[in-house]
Amino acid sequence: MKSEEEVMSEALVRIFENVVLTEEKSLQAGYFSDLSIAEMHTLTAIGPYESRTMTKTAEDLGITTGTLTVAIDRLVKKGYVIRQRDTNDKRVVRISLTRNGKLACRMNSKFHRVLAKHILSGYNEEDRKHLLALVNEVDVYVAQQLRRYDGAVNVRKTAMEVAKDSKKENE
Amino acid sequence: MGDSANTDSRREQIYNEVIRILSTDLEVSADEIANDTILNTELPFDSLQLYEFVIDLEEAFNIKLPDEMLDQMKTVDDIVSLIIRLTEGK
Question: What is the pTM of this model?
Answer without folding.
Answer: 0.77
